[in-house]
Amino acid sequence: MAISSSSSIPSRQLFINGEWRQPLHKKRIPIVNPSTEKIIGDIPAGTAEDVELAVDAARKALSRNKGKDWPKATGAFRAKYLRAIAAKVLERKSELARLEALDCGKPLDEAAWDMDDVAGCFEYYADLAEGLDAKKKVPVNVPMETFKSYVRKEPIGVVGLITPWNYPLLMAIWKVAPALAAGCAAILKPSELTSITCLELGDICREVGLPPGVLNIVTGLGPEAGAPLAAHPHVDKISFTGSTATGSRIMTAASQLVKPVTLELGGKSPIVIFEDTDLDKAAEWTMFGCFWTNGQMCSATSRLIVHENIAEKFLERLVSWVKKVKVSDPMEEGCRLGPVVSGGQYEKIMKFISVAKSEGATILCGGRRPQHLKKGFFIEPTIITNVNTSMQIWREEVFGPVLCVKTFKTEEEAVELANDTEYGLAAAVISDDLERCERMTQAFQAGIVWVNCSQPCFCQLPWGGIKRSGFGRDLGEWGLENFLSVKQVTQYISTEPWGWYQSPSTKPLSKL
């Protein structure tokens, strides 16, 4: 059964200072449904001038009523708004999921799961916001009794949040929820490819009465809206999720102002399968690790490293699983792989597959458009074998449903292959030997490790990587710390003078 995808897309403006505002240049960007390649609506194209208005609104939100309306309000006060937003997201879950699936092409079931996670993330950070009230003054013992010291945690100020297109609303909320919980005012700049649900967040904020300027949403192209936000002198911090190349440019712009950044960037993550595991269990986690979200995950475990003793049998089993995956319009019941997000992304992925073939790799399965789908940016789930470590498909992030495979003999070789990448976001190991899993966990050069699974994500846990996958962490308490500044306060409490210098009121020492 197909669910109708023809119903209208809300037409929104920029969300600035709690109001809808037409972009100053009055330009808009078409929304293309990746399943049909048809234009289904448009979004406002903000520019530097609109970013200026949003930053001004955010700064005023922080200073209004001497800060008592937001940054200096209690965490419990801010938590009420976060919980109200969570409730509205759940209330609108089916509609938001439909819009997400139409916009980015992910299966409707996945989009619905995302909306549950969006609400859960707001609830989690509401709890942490309340917890901040008990941490306003954290005493610190110092070795001199004449001093009393404590540490304050304060919102860092105005923050720019630049987010990707693969989890349009969820990854925005990974930043929005902790920023608001901390007492910051934010400007969200979502990807121009998938901005629909982020603009709907603006409507929800209006509905719950979020104070004006606390969250502003400026859609637009990266160079026209994202770059001015990253370089703005009155933005106190940038948090970015996206490609390593764009992250490098944002870091360069921020460095001119010595502005802190959190960067969650690309990946080329390994999944290591040992010979002592159940083949079906390993096959399903391998698929989930690479084909979930249509393969468009920075954390995708897209390098399969499998023990040579089971490689042939495992790949046969894996292909049989892959051939049962339903590739279809995301709105169709049972869809497990939709289209990639855009024509440009489709061409990029197909070029990766073509180059792999020309370099001598073997396309074991997939590698083309499904025959039953004549329109849309669909690519069959693809497995590539006979790969060597110098090939592009082994070294570069594809960001699509493409898995490349190498075999190994020893645990040491598996570790070497797993770490043979400039990235360090995630890694997975599948084995029934838990001591071996622990050794692999310690040996992986990655910020996230999965044992006997791939891709589970919980908002209570830190998310981020090392090496060229970036630095800093989203989610968990670490995500909240991103938006807090630490202030040391030390008080001299003795009634006695400090006595380092001689007081002019005392007599000088007599001469010998």
Rounded to the nearest angstrom, the distance between the terminal CA atoms is 105 Å
Overall mean confidence score, pLDDT: 96
Q: How many DSSP-defined strands?
A: 22
Class inferred from helices and paired strands: alpha/beta
Poorly predicted spans: 1-6
Task: List the main descriptive attributes of the protein structure presented here.
single chain, 512 residues, alpha/beta, 15 helices, globular
Layout of helices and strands:
Blueprint: E1 14-16, E2 19-21, E3 28-32, E4 39-44, H1 48-63, H2 75-91, H3 93-104, H4 108-132, E5 138-140, E6 147-155, E7 158-162, H5 168-182, E8 185-189, H6 196-208, E9 215-217, H7 222-230, E10 237-241, H8 244-255, E11 261-264, E12 270-273, H9 279-291, E13 303-307, H10 311-322, H11 343-358, E14 362-365, E15 382-385, H12 392-395, E16 402-408, H13 411-418, E17 423-424, E18 426-430, H14 434-443, E19 448-451, E20 466-467, E21 470-471, H15 476-481, E22 484-492
Parallel strand pairs: 7-8, 7-10, 8-9, 10-11, 12-13, 12-18, 13-16, 15-16, 18-19
Antiparallel strand pairs: 1-2, 3-4, 5-6, 6-22, 11-21, 14-15, 17-20
Helix pairs in contact: 1-7, 2-4, 2-5, 2-6, 3-4, 4-5, 9-10
